[in-house]
Amino acid sequence: MQLIVNGETVDADVEEDMPLLWVLRDELNVKGPKYGCGIAQCGACTVHVDGMPVRSCSITAKQVEGAEVTTIEGLGTPDALHAVQEAWIDHQVAQCGYCQSGQIMSAAALLAIYPEPSDEQIDRALSANLCRCGTYPRIREAVKSAAAKLQGA
Amino acid sequence: MKKTLGLASALGLGVIAAMGVALSHGSGDDDAAIDLVVNQPEGDVSREEGLAAWDRIFAVASHPRCANCHTDENNVPMWSGPSYGKTRPHGMNINAGMSRIGIESMPCTTCHTQSTKPNTIPHAPPHTGHVWMLAPVEFVWFGKDTQTICAQMRDPERNGGRDGAGLVEHILHDAEIKAFITWGFNPGGGREPAPGTMQDHLNDMVTWTAAGMPCPDPAG
Question: Could you give the CA distance from residue A38 to residue A34 in angstroms, rounded to a whole number?
Fold first, then answer.
């Protein structure tokens, strides 16, 4: 099966019903998306499918065939970070860090639609990405910084 | 008189024509077909029979499995019923937005994928063959009494423009694509299903609509 991951078309010899997260991590060695709960409850595995955030543990390879899959590796690079990634570093959002790639992907999806999100919009968009360390206040501030950066402030 | 889904044409539904067809379509995944039969009532259906059928329809509509996503203009799905303990809004600060399919940056499908596969995993966001969403805001059922839901369901301006035949067809179409009504009777994952079966519900809708969609007297 052919998948489009981070802009590259890749061949994956997998069963059609293999969860996308398994394809990414175990077959394509894309380790940014994390395995948290495995049942779309925590958000650690969040990727973008055609720009929208999706829990990759609960969508099958077949369901994303032909779609643009973007993981945190495709959001930015170490030399050219996405504004959200930069903001995450600036605010030192991560504590243990396990949920953070999912948080960043959800934040990037939010800012793609709401360039100046309110606190309420941030909370609604990111409350379903669970952080056991409780980094939400820093997440909210980092999202605001990223929003300003994306707007050239 | 008992007829198969071919009766859909006789009822002017015109969508599902094959006699006795097994409704097995969906979003491409394979699993067991759902066989439904439209049982056309013989002769007139009395108001009493219609009201009895309505009582059972209300039991389904007001069941948490259905009502939890038939919520008001606040666009917040609910978690209630024996699977959830205390009644409360959907966790994780979820709001389905004006679109009712989730806020634009995080649609319901972020977690509730679209699939006709059986729901087998406890606590996992359930899925159907339809894109996950709240029912239209006009269809508020959560916390509403039988008279209120009955008045809404028979009002074409608040039921998606459906007459009696349209309501029956709605159930048949739902079974065809394995959408929310179908899921309500087989929610999986340890969730309590809506009372009765999909066939019972279809029978009741046929009976209720044939009786002229009577609603209970507010005085009881």
Answer: 9
Q: Chain A residues with CB inside 8 Å of B96's CB?
A: none
Determine the residue of chain B that is closest to A108 in CA distance.
B105
Note the ipTM here. 0.93
Q: Do residues B185 and B191 make contact, with C-beta atoms less than 8 angstroms apart?
A: no
Average pLDDT, chain A: 96
Q: Which CATH class is domain A83-150?
A: mainly alpha
Predicted confidence band of residue A152 (pLDDT cuts 50, 70, 90): confident
Residue A153 has pLDDT above 90, yes or no: no
Distance in Å, alpha carbon of B81 to nearest chain A alpha carbon = 19
CB-CB neighbors (< 8 A) of B90 in chain A: none
Enumerate residues 39 to 78 of chain A having a beta carbon within 8 A of any beta carbon in chain B.
39-41, 46, 52-55, 58-60, 62-63
* pLDDT at site B1: 37
- Residue ranges of alpha helices (H) inside B43-121 are 47-61, 64-67
Fold of A2-75: Ubiquitin-like (UB roll) (3.10.20)
Q: Which residues contact B77 (CB under 8 A, 6 or more apart)?
A: B68, B69, B71, B89, B90, B94, B96, B134
Model confidence at A18: pLDDT above 50 = yes
- When computed from its CA atoms, the radius of gyration of chain A, rounded to whole angstroms, is 15
Report d(CA B204, CA B106) in Å as an integer. 37
Provide the shortest C-alpha distance from residue A113 to chain B (in Å).
6
Q: Is residue B215 part of a domain?
A: no
Residue B147 lies in a domain: yes
Asked if residue B110 is part of any domain, the answer here is yes
Chains A & B: contacts with CB separation below 8 Å: 69
Cβ–Cβ below 8 Å for A39 and B121: yes
Structural domain count of chain B: 1
Q: Which residue has the higher pLDDT, A140 or B220?
A: A140
Residue B109: is its pLDDT beyond 70? yes
| pLDDT tens, position by position, A34-54 | 999 999 999 999 999 999 999
